[in-house]
Amino acid sequence: MIQPRPRSIPEATVARLAVYLRVLTSFADGGRTTVSSGDLASATGVNPAGLRKDLSHLGSCGVRGVGYDVRALRERIARVLGAERSRACVLVGLGNLGSALADYAGFGSRGFEFVGLLDAAPERVGQRIGGLTVQDVADLEAVVAATQASIGVIATPADVAQQVCDRLAAAGVRSILNFAPVTLSAPAGVDVRHVDLSVELQVLAFLGQQRVPVGEASA
């Protein structure tokens, strides 16, 4: 079993920092200059104590009685997450989900740029999606080398996802986001994050059925 590399900031905290960054960006775009820990915690769905603990990993960044400078805190989190520079990404699998990801403009504003789209289906190769032309997956290694992509996104069927993961890792990609409904294994030094939409929907369904109807609760 491959052990994850040690991190100076816990992975769960990193995930929440990304949420704080999104909310702070929204505040800054709206002209807000300061925010209290309570307001930021409420906007991000965490408790104030947990938020302050997360931000303690960044060093001193708030003023008692005043709160946080929105732009300064946003920039500090962006530096920690590496979001201040653009990251080149290749996406493999241009079905419905992959095509939607490739055509989504929001990634660019967060520092992620698709530089290569690849698919195995002849009818998809040559299509233009999100300003890029879909290339044959047989050219994956050449595309990674030419673009210096550091992140790979997998949106293929489950039965080919591991093969794609292996090829991405061998080509030098060190970060992989997997949307295929299968758990992937990767060599040491390659980080893989899994996003299984069906699992998330099942969790929501479970939570929904656990709710006690208002009528029953008041009876």
TrEMBL record:
**Which residues are listed for NAD(+) binding in this entry?**
G93, L94, G95, N96, L97, G98
Q: Which domain of life is it from?
A: Bacteria
- Sorted alphabetically, which InterPro entries does this protein's record hold? CoA-bd, NAD(P)-bd_dom_sf, Rex_actinobacterial-type, Rex_DNA-bd_C_dom, Tscrpt_rep_Rex, WH-like_DNA-bd_sf, WH_DNA-bd_sf
For this UniProt record, the keywords arranged alphabetically read as follows: Cytoplasm, DNA-binding, NAD, Repressor, Transcription, Transcription regulation
Q: Where is the CoA-binding domain?
A: 82-183
**Predominant location:** cytoplasm
Give compartment(s): Cytoplasm
Chain residues forming the annotated DNA-binding region: 19-58
Matches recorded under Pfam families: CoA_binding, Put_DNA-bind_N
SMART domains, sorted: CoA_binding
Tell me how this protein assembles: Homodimer.
Q: Which family does it belong to?
A: Belongs to the transcriptional regulatory Rex family.
Q: Which NCBIfam families match?
A: PRK05472.2-1, PRK05472.2-2, PRK05472.2-3, PRK05472.2-4, PRK05472.2-5
The record ties this protein, via HAMAP family, to: Rex (MF_01131)
Functional description taken from the UniProt entry? Modulates transcription in response to changes in cellular NADH/NAD(+) redox state.
Q: What is this protein called?
A: Redox-sensing transcriptional repressor Rex
What is the species of this protein? Blastococcus carthaginiensis
Name of the gene: rex
